[in-house]
UniProtKB/TrEMBL annotation:
One protein family per Pfam: DUF642
Protein location: Secreted, Cell wall
Comp. bias (Polar residues): 322-331
Protein name: DUF642 domain-containing protein
Residue stretches making up the DUF642 domain: 26-187, 198-316
Keywords: Cell wall, Glycoprotein, Secreted, Signal
UniProt region (Disordered), positions on chain: 316-340
Transmembrane segments: none
Primary subcellular site in the record, as a coarse category: secreted
Signal sequence bounds: 1-22
InterPro entries, A to Z: DGR2-like_dom, Galactose-bd-like_sf, Pectin_Meth_Modulator
Amino acid sequence: MYRATVSLLLLLLSTTSHVAFSVTDGLLPNGDFEHGPKPGQMKGPVVTAKNAIPNWEISGYVEYIKSGQKQGDMLLVVPDGAFAVRLGNQASIKQKINVTKNSFYSITFNVARTCAQEEKLNVSVSPNSEPNDWGILPMQTMYSSKGWDSYAWGFQADASEVEITIHHPGVEEDPACGPLIDSVALKFLSNPKRTRGNLLKNGNFEEGPYMFPNTDWGVLIPPNIEDDHSPLPGWMIESLKAVKYVDFDHFSVPKGERAIELMAGKESALAQIVKTIPGKTYELTFNVGDANNSCEGSMAIEAYAGKDKIEVPYQSKGTGGSSVPDSSSMPCQHAQGLCS
Ligand SMILES: *[C@@H]1O[C@H](CO)[C@@H](O)[C@H](O)[C@H]1NC(C)=O
Ligand SMILES: *[C@@H]1O[C@H](CO)[C@@H](O)[C@H](O)[C@H]1NC(C)=O
Ligand SMILES: *[C@@H]1O[C@H](CO)[C@@H](O)[C@H](O)[C@H]1NC(C)=O
């Protein structure tokens, strides 16, 4: 058996089938922070008691933000409901949840930056059988024009009760200069199987992180995401920039309900490892399109299977076209029968 890495670069891909939502999918208890501290548990906007926000435990400098509140000249607007939290330097929020041990889950939450700085968030789950295993999600680029982005991160539950922590590792001069967080949701991830007809797992991207029905900016899957932290089962994000998970309700998706937008040019890539048999010929087929979000121009996607590579041009009008390019059926066979 030889291994070929199939890596698809640039733009939008998708195919068929539908995966039902599991019952646990949606906001965590008080995941939208609509229930807040009592007046005696705040000093100005700062939360002073660690259990003041119902269902959550906080540590460090956490502000409880009301939509419409001003910060300097900036009006803070909250995407879901009327409240959100802000994590200052080294602050964190955490919540315990009951899950199914050994299953995979994905966390999705909304983030806004309030100061023009490079910000990061550190997401972790405990207990965790692997030491020093957390996700640093970079937020130096804001992708949506609404001021908020959704981020996703995946994990495997090592116990039936786990604690999810979102921590702001920043050390800015102004302690209040941390990201705003709203709408923390969880989704059970099924483990899509390879089929006889398709050797790629989750080739249609139908299984993926929770998407908020009321937001129209998709969900960012952060860069450098591998195996058990992928909120997109089967796929690794092998790039320096995030990719965007988009839904049929708010974007043009060539087939099915979900697709991936490779929005950061050459810096976005998805990869999956597929076992192949020497001497056999394989065909890689995919749809290329645009998400109907006004991104116009000449684009191209590059697909690699082992050492083979094709480049597929796509002329985007930004209005939601798509095609299955002739050249996207890529035979993958070498003289010695290796595709790696
Ligand atoms: C998880 O389930 C256990 C047993 O049913 C219960 O005692 C505990 O409070 C639950 N934890 C949470 C966070 O709901
Ligand atoms: C990330 O968060 C975990 C859990 O709170 C913590 O142990 C770890 O030190 C943090 N990592 C960084 C780089 O801040
Ligand atoms: C693109 O978006 C516009 C406006 O949102 C909509 O009317 C149109 O049907 C969409 N096109 C496709 C192909 O999805």
